[in-house]
């Protein structure tokens, strides 16, 4: 369908979501979303998503112990920790610093910390991915970022911060939903849903081609593959998964 068709369907979707648009106009939706709706929604989505990607995450993180520092420690920084669904995949004794721009995930985060006491939790920082100034340069062995680059203000800025905080030879792990093939119906529906989805789900962008940002970043090695995660009735099936070495 043509651009007018996309605009028409966007308008129809906006009409269906009119109460949320009205609350946003009144300045009510964003604080409600940040404090109550999005933490609740993300914890539920994470549970469904984890069931779909558990095997892929096990494969992704299996070489994490190989990136220990010469001292034998493994210092890991997770960007956009949310409620902590990745903790189960980290090796015993791993020292984790958690960051998130939204501090309202504490209940889900505490539950996952209690379930994964093989990990040493260093601290929680309220920080955006583009501004990790609280983390010293070259101070971590690994950075993890899953389902986060869709929502950051600046993907390239976030990747620059990843490279800054990693020590030489450190590793960056990622799993992100991305734009579908531009010739596909799925991409068409991503374009239709884009404005309303972004409003409802705290800035989540459906059409980012994040693999291009990773390819253009200054990593010495990039292992990336495209995959699909079947999440019925959502436009976020296309994903990328992999790791990059500084």
From TrEMBL:
Domain Methyltransferase type: 77-174
CDD domains, per the entry: AdoMet_MTases (cd02440)
InterPro entries noted in UniProt: Methyltransf_11 (IPR013216), SAM-dependent_MTases_sf (IPR029063), Thiol_S-MT (IPR052356)
Sequence intervals crossing the membrane: 7-29
Superkingdom, taxonomy of origin: Eukaryota
GO function terms (MF aspect): S-adenosylmethionine-dependent methyltransferase activity
Keyword terms, alphabetized: Membrane, Transmembrane, Transmembrane helix
Family matches, as Gene3D superfamilies: Vaccinia Virus protein VP39
This protein's name: MET7A protein
Source organism of this protein record: Cepphus grylle (Black guillemot)
Gene, per the UniProt record: Mettl7a
